[in-house]
Design brief:
The chain is of the alpha+beta class and 107 residues long. It has one domain: 2-Layer Sandwich (Alpha-Beta Plaits), CATH 3.30.70. Helices cover 32% and strands 28% of the residues. The protein has a 4-stranded antiparallel β-sheet. The protein is globular. The two termini are 19 Å apart. The mean pLDDT is 93.
Length: 107
């Protein structure tokens, strides 16, 4: 039986445009794979602006218990990647946890 996600865990960070491609590749190599092994789904979004590039990672979870097991503690605690301090404008201080009220209707 396929599990339906009920929780979205959202991380956002920004970098300078000159680091955007490098950070995207780094995040895809180091940040996304652990999520792909455990979460029901993962999205990495990128928004290029004139003076900065924003990245948003959304992972989807069946319940709080599975997300808490993955994070080994508080799911709102940010777990920074080794090079985040080098590549991001500042280290994000929090993770957003959202209850999924209407799941995506994909066709």
């Amino acid at each position: 039986m396929t599990k339906v996600p009920t929780i979205a865990r959202i991380w956002r960070g920004r970098t300078k445009p000159e680091f955007a491609d490098e950070y995207e590749a780094y995040n895809r190599a180091e940040g996304i794979p652990p999520l792909l092994k455990t979460a029901l789904g993962v999205q990495l979004l990128r928004e290029d602006r004139k003076d900065e590039t924003w990245f948003t990672t959304i992972s989807y979870w069946a319940d709080m218990e599975s997300m808490t097991a993955f994070t080994k503690g508080d799911p709102e605690q940010v777990h920074h990647l080794a090079r985040d301090a080098e590549l991001l404008c500042e280290l994000p201080e929090r993770i957003q946890i959202h209850k999924i009220v209407v799941p995506p209707n994909l066709r």
